[in-house]
């Protein structure tokens, strides 16, 4: 019985086969992640410094900070691959997401055990290429600003003790949440939101590789609705491609499709609401229409608000887009803009506290109408 039991438990050869992911089934964010630091978009200063560090193979502890989707994690992973090569990457690089593993026990056990291991001296010649493979390891702590204060304090001593054989790279969105003793031990690299030109080039390249027909207006919609987050823009593009291919024949991708996927209120709805409040909007419609629509006052605004809410649009998203439209409007005077900004702030606080969405959008509409029309 015992022998048959252990025979049944013995691992089969099938379990030892390495799992290979079909590239066609990969998310585009992973499929088109940069493999070298030269492929990183729009972070010229950081890439220049890291390129010099790559030639000398002498890296300091590093702190990457900036908004999401700007290439922080992709940059350090690409740098690590160029240093160690594919064969030694798993042995020399430990990547942890601190938003999941952020307690002091992780620092004392997992991070410390990996940091104290002396890397083997290897001559690296994998896949026909030669890699520098310097005599140290790299520990990448993603979302490091989610680590507790105690965990960051414990990490400080480990960084000092094992600096000869282990280098740390902290990746975070908010550098102010990293304790000063930890931040002072790292070289800081600030990642900025991608500019429109760099984002457009990258999105156009991905669309061309995936054979997705998109025009300039769609690319602009992706950039606008992602707010400098390239990862979000690529995800929107992939979702729009799936939506386009779901019909036979495939339907062309339109800017409105991107707005629908992004969950923003269509520009036509926001512009129509702004006209009801008395804002002069020039988007190809009859300019004489606006004065006629604002004559009704309370009844017209209430009817428009009821229609918008019944369409299921998010009140917070309406506030964001209406705020940008009014505050950045070229012809409205400063007094009207300041009055509108005040009611936007009050509405945002009320909605965060759980107030009724329809009532507060109506409040915003009426007070903005009064500020603009007087």
From TrEMBL:
<comment type="similarity">
    <text>Belongs to the activator 1 small subunits family.</text>
</comment>
<dbReference type="GO" id="GO:0006281">
    <property type="term" value="P:DNA repair"/>
</dbReference>
<dbReference type="InterPro" id="IPR027417">
    <property type="entry name" value="P-loop_NTPase"/>
</dbReference>
<dbReference type="Pfam" id="PF21960">
    <property type="entry name" value="RCF1-5-like_lid"/>
</dbReference>
<protein>
    <recommendedName>
        <fullName>AAA+ ATPase domain-containing protein</fullName>
    </recommendedName>
</protein>
<feature type="domain" description="AAA+ ATPase">
    <location>
        <begin position="58"/>
        <end position="195"/>
    </location>
</feature>
<dbReference type="InterPro" id="IPR003593">
    <property type="entry name" value="AAA+_ATPase"/>
</dbReference>
<keyword id="KW-0539">Nucleus</keyword>
<dbReference type="GO" id="GO:0003689">
    <property type="term" value="F:DNA clamp loader activity"/>
</dbReference>
<keyword id="KW-0235">DNA replication</keyword>
<dbReference type="GO" id="GO:0016887">
    <property type="term" value="F:ATP hydrolysis activity"/>
</dbReference>
<keyword id="KW-0067">ATP-binding</keyword>
<keyword id="KW-0547">Nucleotide-binding</keyword>
<dbReference type="GO" id="GO:0005634">
    <property type="term" value="C:nucleus"/>
</dbReference>
<dbReference type="Pfam" id="PF08542">
    <property type="entry name" value="Rep_fac_C"/>
</dbReference>
<dbReference type="GO" id="GO:0003677">
    <property type="term" value="F:DNA binding"/>
</dbReference>
<dbReference type="Pfam" id="PF00004">
    <property type="entry name" value="AAA"/>
</dbReference>
<dbReference type="GO" id="GO:0005663">
    <property type="term" value="C:DNA replication factor C complex"/>
</dbReference>
<dbReference type="GO" id="GO:0031391">
    <property type="term" value="C:Elg1 RFC-like complex"/>
</dbReference>
<dbReference type="GO" id="GO:0006271">
    <property type="term" value="P:DNA strand elongation involved in DNA replication"/>
</dbReference>
<dbReference type="InterPro" id="IPR050238">
    <property type="entry name" value="DNA_Rep/Repair_Clamp_Loader"/>
</dbReference>
<dbReference type="InterPro" id="IPR013748">
    <property type="entry name" value="Rep_factorC_C"/>
</dbReference>
<dbReference type="InterPro" id="IPR003959">
    <property type="entry name" value="ATPase_AAA_core"/>
</dbReference>
<dbReference type="InterPro" id="IPR047854">
    <property type="entry name" value="RFC_lid"/>
</dbReference>
<dbReference type="InterPro" id="IPR008921">
    <property type="entry name" value="DNA_pol3_clamp-load_cplx_C"/>
</dbReference>
<dbReference type="GO" id="GO:0005524">
    <property type="term" value="F:ATP binding"/>
</dbReference>
């Amino acid at each position: 019985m015992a022998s048959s039991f252990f025979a049944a438990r013995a691992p089969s050869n099938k379990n030892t086969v390495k799992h290979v992911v079909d590239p066609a089934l990969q998310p585009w964010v992973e499929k088109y992640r940069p493999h070298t630091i030269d492929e990183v978009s729009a972070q010229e200063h950081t890439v220049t410094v890291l390129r010099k560090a790559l030639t000398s193979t002498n890296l300091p502890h590093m702190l990457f900070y900036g908004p999401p989707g700007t290439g922080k994690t992709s940059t350090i992973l690409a740098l690590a691959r160029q240093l160690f090569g594919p064969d030694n990457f798993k042995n020399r690089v430990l990547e942890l997401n601190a938003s999941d593993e952020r307690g002091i026990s992780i620092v004392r056990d997992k991070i410390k055990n990996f940091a104290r291991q002396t890397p083997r001296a290897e001559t690296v010649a994998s896949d026909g290429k030669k890699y520098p493979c310097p005599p140290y390891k790299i520990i990448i702590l993603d979302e490091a600003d989610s680590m507790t204060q105690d965990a960051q304090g414990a990490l400080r001593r480990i960084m000092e003790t094992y600096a000869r054989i282990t280098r740390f790279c902290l990746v975070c969105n908010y550098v102010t949440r990293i304790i000063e003793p930890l931040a002072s031990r790292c070289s800081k690299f600030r990642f900025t939101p991608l500019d429109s030109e760099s984002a457009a080039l990258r999105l156009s390249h991905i669309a061309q590789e995936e054979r997705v027909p998109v025009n300039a207006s769609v690319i602009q919609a992706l950039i606008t609705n992602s707010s400098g987050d390239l990862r979000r823009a690529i995800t929107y593009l992939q979702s729009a491609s799936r939506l386009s291919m779901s019909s036979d024949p495939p339907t062309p991708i339109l800017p409105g499709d991107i707005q629908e996927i992004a969950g923003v209120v269509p520009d036509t709805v926001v512009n129509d609401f702004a006209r009801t409040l008395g804002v002069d909007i020039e988007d190809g419609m009859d300019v004489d229409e606006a004065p006629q629509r604002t004559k009704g006052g309370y009844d017209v605004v209430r009817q428009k608000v009821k229609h918008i809410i019944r369409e299921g649009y998010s009140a917070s998203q309406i506030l964001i887009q209406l705020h940008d439209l009014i505050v950045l409007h070229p012809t409205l005077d400063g007094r009207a803009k300041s009055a509108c900004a005040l009611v936007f702030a009050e509405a945002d606080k009320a909605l965060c506290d759980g107030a009724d969405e329809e009532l507060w959008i109506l409040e915003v509409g009426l007070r903005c109408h009064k500020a603009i029309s007087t």
